[in-house]
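Here is one chain, start to finish.
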Amino acid sequence: MVRAVLRATIPWILAGSALMGCRPEEATRTPEPHDHRRDDHASVVVMHPSATQAAVLGALVDAAVGTATTPRVELDERLCVVAEELAERTASGGGVTMPEATVIAREAGSVLMPVMAVPIEPAALRREGARALIASIPGNAPLAVGLSQARGSGEGDRLVAVFARALVRLPAPVPMHGASRLEIELDPLAIAYTPELLVVDAHGTSRVSFAPTGGGRFVAERAAGFAGTRVGILGTMARADLGQSRRTSMELLGTMHFDPQPQLGPVGATSLADGIAGLRAQWGLPAVEFGATEAPACGDIVSSIASQPVTLVQRCVAWASAGDDAERWAAFLTNPLVLEALGDPTWSLAELRRDVESTSLRVARRFEELTVEQAHARLDAEIRRRWPAIRHDAAADRGVAELAGAWAAEPLDAASSARVAETTGAAAGRWTREPRWFRIAWSDQDLSTALEGLAPEVTPTAYTLGVVRGVGPQGEPRWFVVVMLALPR
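Its structure:
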């Protein structure tokens, strides 16, 4: 799940003159309005802030001391460019959504994800006020801030502040045109993450591995280059098994846009469902059926979508967005991790949730509805395909099905799995006159995986098979399968 909590629209409007950029004092060029585009991605700490910027930064640094969420605060030049642009756009009374701020950050060459933007009155930023501001910023990581004052204003006047959490930085600038190599440096707090690149282009998504080079730095190379892509810098935690479902903890640490920008999905989509359908079609993927009701929040596991049972193989992603579907679709396209959620050809059902400041999409695989007889016939055919000369002891199938049914009647946990292993082993020894036997007891929602563990070391001479349908620990439909094989000496 994408865990980015962003304010949907900057909750303030600045009136009066245009705003000036936050650049080192020695910079003499006066930027034109909306002069925010840069030719490369870079992480640059401002070394010579103005007196007002330094005062605000000092207050934030002091307020962060001893907090659990913000180990340090630094002034980031590229976020200052974002703050400048936001001030320019809001000075005339307009609004800027946080997804738009993210796009501006990419164009300004920042890899960081803006999480909040606020006006700051330096004189009013007392100790408690600074602490309250730090506590209100979403996330738990080092804090990067961009600050910009109104052009023509004096020291001490209002500042525009843009905040982002910073677990990743670029040790060297990366050109927006022609890049094929990307080096990153992870903050020591991100030591548990394994970084990986997620690349999105007009043809779909792919992953690119990083190679460690020491000192918390990693390098990734792509032979085709990064032109025409949107890139997500992911941090992935070790995979954990929860019951019989698998989950991966993953964070989007940063994003980058490389020119020329890819066209993703239909131009000017005004419906989320239409945009998603068009993007899957562009990527050559099967269409998904959308549920008509509002989806539950991410974090829950659902057993059905559109009144159709689904498997636990599902994915839910959320992204900061507000307004109508056109605005939510535009925000969708800025997040590579959200885009990747569409890239699996096995998804068949989907549902959407529109909250005030976020949107979520859940995609899932349809549970294949079969009768027990159809499931038995399919497994029987697969066993015969593997060993054409094998003999089927059909008379024993009923008893084996009773073993599977007894297992399905219990809670599916380690204790019941141990008991079924013991009972089926004893039953297999009684069933065959051959000196050796092999058996599996398997439960899954996907019947095609039921025989993956059926791999005896010699060719079996006979088999018996039992299958029943039951309900898993999360209310999901699943199959319980027991197979016994007779093996020669």
